[in-house]
Specification:
This protein is 0% helix and 39% strand. It has 75 residues and is mostly beta strands. The chain has a domain of 52 residues. Strand 3 and strand 4 form a beta hairpin.
């Protein structure tokens, strides 16, 4: 299984998407699996300026999302 954690930097343009982590899982066995992952935060300097609303040094982001993508045998 191939996993990707993607930060959506802009709801209108996917060029601002950032893959903040990706990893493979081998030797999978049937049944329940648990795992944990940690990753670095997205690079906020790559987010378009129109998606950022700042006031008095506070940072507010517009509509964003984190997408978790999983593929099995390249599908």
């Amino acid at each position: 299984m191939d996993w990707k954690i993607i930060y959506i930097g802009s709801p209108t343009n996917n060029q601002y998407d950032q893959v903040i982590d990706s990893f493979d899982m081998d030797n999978l066995h049937p049944g329940v699996m648990n795992f944990q992952t940690e990753s670095n935060p997205p690079d906020f300097s790559l987010i378009p300026q129109e998606e950022i609303v700042g006031k008095f040094s506070l940072l507010f982001l517009g509509t964003t999302a984190i997408l978790i993508s999983v593929s099995y045998e390249k599908q």
